[in-house]
């Protein structure tokens, strides 16, 4: 089974691309959504996070205290590094279990913004980088998240790996720049992956 990673910075449209692969019948693993689930329900990780960040990491009813953790981690590089070092191994195991449950698929897709930062790319056979120009990303994010300012968005983007680096390291690039059609790009990659799987078989 081929394992295809999809990455790109905030606002490039990774989720839209992944929905297209899902419509083609390809299982999609959303690392961000699964990370939130694992942080809520993985008892071992909950103990590790509580030990590292204090009992405030979770609310009294067991929910993840996202605001507290975000403030603790994102304004302190060492805390952010610690948080990632605790969460990523558990999400990695969750992904491995998920792959095992999708063995009948010709290939699977994993969506992860931090594909390179978390070293998750090492589990993938090929990587797709989704690209959109900065001004397009900012416009999308201001529409999607009206509570955020342009300064907030630029601060988030500045902390992510540069798009040029992601594109240089990826085997494929999808341009979601509101100029080029997405569907033909996704279909071409889909057909190529299917052909590659059949060639292996």
UniProtKB/TrEMBL annotation:
Question: Which keywords label this protein?
Answer: ATP-binding, Coenzyme A biosynthesis, Cytoplasm, Kinase, Nucleotide-binding, Transferase
Q: Where in the cell is it found?
A: Cytoplasm
- What metabolic or biological pathway is this protein involved in? Cofactor biosynthesis; coenzyme A biosynthesis; CoA from (R)-pantothenate: step 5/5
UniProt-listed InterPro entries: Depp_CoAkinase (IPR001977), P-loop_NTPase (IPR027417)
Q: Where does ATP bind?
A: 11-16
Source organism superkingdom:
Bacteria
Enzyme Commission (EC) number: 2.7.1.24
Q: Does the keyword Kinase apply?
A: yes
A single GO BP:
coenzyme A biosynthetic process
Is Transit peptide one of the keywords UniProt gives this record? no
- Top-level EC class, please? transferase
Q: GO MF terms on file?
A: ATP binding; dephospho-CoA kinase activity
What catalytic activity does the UniProt entry give for this protein? 3'-dephospho-CoA + ATP = ADP + CoA + H(+)
Query: May I have one GO cellular component term?
Result: cytoplasm
Q: Name one Pfam family in it.
A: CoaE
Q: What does this protein do?
A: Catalyzes the phosphorylation of the 3'-hydroxyl group of dephosphocoenzyme A to form coenzyme A.
The entry assigns this protein to a family as follows: Belongs to the CoaE family.
User: Which protein are we looking at?
Assistant: Dephospho-CoA kinase
Question: Taxonomic classification, please?
Answer: Bacteria, Pseudomonadati, Bacteroidota, Cytophagia, Cytophagales
């Amino acid at each position: 089974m081929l394992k295809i990673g999809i990455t790109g910075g905030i606002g490039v449209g990774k989720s839209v691309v992944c929905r297209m692969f899902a419509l083609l019948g390809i299982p999609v693993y959303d690392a961000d959504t699964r990370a939130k689930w694992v942080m809520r329900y993985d008892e071992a990780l909950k103990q590790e996070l509580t030990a590292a960040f204090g009992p405030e990491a979770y609310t009294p009813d067991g929910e993840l205290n996202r605001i507290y953790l975000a403030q603790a981690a994102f304004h302190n590089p060492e805390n952010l590094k610690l948080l990632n070092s605790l969460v990523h191994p558990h999400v990695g195991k969750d992904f491995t279990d998920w792959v095992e449950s999708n063995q009948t698929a010709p290939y699977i897709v994993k969506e992860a913004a931090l594909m390179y930062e978390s070293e998750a790319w090492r589990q993938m056979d090929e990587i797709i980088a989704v690209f959109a120009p900065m001004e397009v990303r900012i416009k999308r994010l201001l529409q999607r998240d009206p509570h955020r300012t342009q300064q907030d968005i630029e601060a988030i983007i500045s902390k992510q790996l540069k798009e040029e680096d992601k594109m240089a390291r990826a085997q494929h690039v999808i341009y979601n720049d509101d100029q080029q059609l997405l569907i033909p790009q996704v279909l071409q990659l889909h057909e190529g992956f299917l052909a590659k799987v059949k060639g292996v078989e």
